[in-house]
Amino acid sequence: MSTESTEKMMAQIACKAIDDKKGQDIKVIDIHNVSVIADYFVIASGTNSNQVQAIVDNVEEQLGRAGFEAKQIEGNRNSSWILMDYGDVIVHVFDEENRLFYDLDRIWRDGKVLEMDEFLEK
Prior knowledge:
Elements: H1 3-20, E1 24-30, E2 40-46, H2 49-65, E3 72-74, E4 81-85, E5 89-95, H3 96-102, H4 104-107, E6 112-113, H5 117-120
Parallel strand pairs: 2-5
Antiparallel strand pairs: 1-2, 1-6, 3-4, 4-5
């Protein structure tokens, strides 16, 4: 499997895990042409800290089952923004207020926002 398809598969698994826990406003941004830090950002919101944590737990579990371990996770159970670093895929889970405040969607607007249909099908 090529590296590119591995990263896309990781982003798909993360999106499905987020969707399974009713995460909101899921976005995948392809940033490989604008940054060396990662190929994909997956950004999503939860309505409260419990949902944010449930989303994070499910992403970690589903990616772990597929053989991918997080290099680092920033934030804790009470955080309003949790960053999960899987190398070429970085998952950001926010509560709604902090998603608007930090506005990563705008900051990374030079990246290509991908269609969710291809990430949530299968």
